[in-house]
Amino acid sequence: MSDLKEIRKFKRVVLKLSGEALRAPGSQDNISPEIVGRIAKEIHAARQDSGVELAIVVGGGNFWRGASASARGMDRATADYVGMLATVMNALALQAALEQEGEECIVHSAIHMQNVAEPFIRRKASRQLTRGAVVIFAAGTGSPFFSTDTTAALRANEMDADVIFKATMVDGVYDSDPRKNPDAVRYESVSFRECLSKQLGVMDATAFSLCMDNDIPIIVFDLGKEGNIRIALNHGEIGTVVH
């Protein structure tokens, strides 16, 4: 890929974290303070090195999945609202850990809850990023039927971000599920159109379309390996670039 080095030159990024990544495997606790603390330390170290402007979107799957609850009989809109509230809990935990590392960190919630978070205001969030604060976007888009992947894509466009980092539990995009197929092949880089034609499932269709239509690359990398966030935010070669 000839323009890979150009894609790596970014100033403002959106980091998408899954809620499930905040829970220790096999633990009964929904949030692991140790894991959240490690993520915060890596983010702080990376920002000390690179000065990158960082927005974060965090999921809520460690507490709740709206689609799953809907399949079991709950009204889908209600189930999704419960999931949005779960993301706020994760955002507050991450905010506390980042503040312990000395980072100014502000949570913007798409659902108004003024006692714990600021209401999402695009221009205000952008100014906060410019002055060096970490901004966490919580409560999804504020509307049901949209995933936190879509939230990440939407906020990346609104914040004029250079790239989305999607931190997952695998080390990139594969031609098949590496957890089921030991012969799965990992891509170093792959085009949006190839992802669509091969149904590689990088993000849901709405999120993927927003990134493709507005030419925002996605870098998929493994969150589970210590140090990877720092490598990613410091322009390091990591994971798979979707462009």
Describe the structure.
The protein has 243 residues and is α/β, with parallel strands linked by helices. The protein has a single domain, classed as Acetylglutamate kinase-like (Carbamate kinase, 3-Layer(aba) Sandwich), CATH 3.40.1160. Helices cover 39% and strands 16% of the residues. It has 9 helices and 9 strands. The chain has helices spanning 4-7, 33-50, 66-71, 76-100, 122-130, 148-158, 192-197, 205-213, 228-233; strands at 12-17, 53-58, 105-109, 118-119, 134-138, 163-168, 189-190, 218-222, 240-242. The protein has a 9-stranded mixed β-sheet with strand order 4-3-5-2-1-6-8-9-7, with helices on both faces. Helix 2 (33-50) links the parallel strand 1 (12-17) and strand 2 (53-58). Helix 2 crosses helix 4 (76-100) and helix 6 runs parallel beside helix 8. The relative contact order is 0.17.
Kindly report the spatial arrangement of strands forming the biggest sheet. Answer: 4-3-5-2-1-6-8-9-7
Segments where pLDDT lies below 50 for 5+ residues? Answer: none
How much of the sequence lies in strands comes to 15-25%
Give the N-terminus to C-terminus distance in angstroms.
10 Å
Return the CATH architecture: 3-Layer(aba) Sandwich
Would you count the extended β strands for me?
A: 9
Order of helices and strands: HEHEHHEEHEHEEHHEHE
Form type: globular
- Summed over residues and divided by their number, the pLDDT gives a mean of 90
CATH fold call: Carbamate kinase
Question: Secondary-structure map with pairings?
Answer:
Layout: H1 4-7, E1 12-17, H2 33-50, E2 53-58, H3 66-71, H4 76-100, E3 105-109, E4 118-119, H5 122-130, E5 134-138, H6 148-158, E6 163-168, E7 189-190, H7 192-197, H8 205-213, E8 218-222, H9 228-233, E9 240-242
Parallel strand pairs: 1-2, 1-6, 2-5, 3-4, 3-5, 6-8, 7-9
Antiparallel strand pairs: 8-9
